[in-house]
Design brief:
Layout (H helix, E strand, L loop, with lengths): L7 E4 L3 H10 L9 E4 L5 E2 L4 E2 L5 E7 L12 E6 L21 E6 L5 E7 L4 H9 L6 E6 L5 E7 L1
Antiparallel strand pairs: 1-10, 2-5, 3-4, 5-6, 7-8, 7-9, 9-10
Length: 157
């Protein structure tokens, strides 16, 4: 769902990717997924919230959607071990992650990095809007500041 006010969409991990990982037990690199029990606070890329202690999780390598090329990468992500309903609201910034510093990387249609910004998480919509003013920017990837892991994508509506 595109936020009509902002003109962009927040994208968690695609359902088809999650279904394939759960079905095969293999990640994007062909390696076996790791099953774990949440300690609490793990960022879930399926529903864009922090895990609650005791939830069954998968940890696996994911290649965020980009065209093949040198900027396409594989990195670790957490998701629920079983189907989940996804984010409560895909038209807005994830509520659990508001206030969490993140890096937003801007990519063009070829999958090349064309900019980015570090933000403190307090007003992510302003940073997203500023980055999307550049017509070359097709999508943004939100990244964890410390670990560099992919969190979610933001695409034009």
């Amino acid at each position: 769902m595109t936020n009509t006010r902002t003109g962009y969409l927040i994208q968690p991990l695609p359902n088809e990717v999650l279904a394939e990982v759960r079905r095969t037990g293999l990640d994007a690199g062909g390696r076996p997924v790791e099953r774990a029990t949440a300690e609490g606070g793990e960022p879930l890329r399926c529903c864009l919230r922090d895990a609650l202690a005791g939830e069954p999780l998968l940890l696996f390598g994911y290649a965020p959607e980009l065209p093949d090329g040198p900027y396409r990468e594989l990195g670790p992500v957490f998701a629920h071990d079983a189907d989940c309903p996804g984010p409560d609201d895909a038209s807005g910034y994830p509520a659990d992650w508001r206030g969490r510093p993140q890096v937003l990387r801007a990519y063009d249609r070829r999958g090349r990095i064309v900019g980015g910004r570090l933000h403190d998480g307090d007003d992510p919509e302003t940073v997203v809007a500023e980055l999307l003013t550049d017509p070359a920017v097709e999508r943004l990837h939100s990244r964890n500041v410390v670990y560099g892991c992919f969190m979610f994508a933001i695409v034009r509506g």
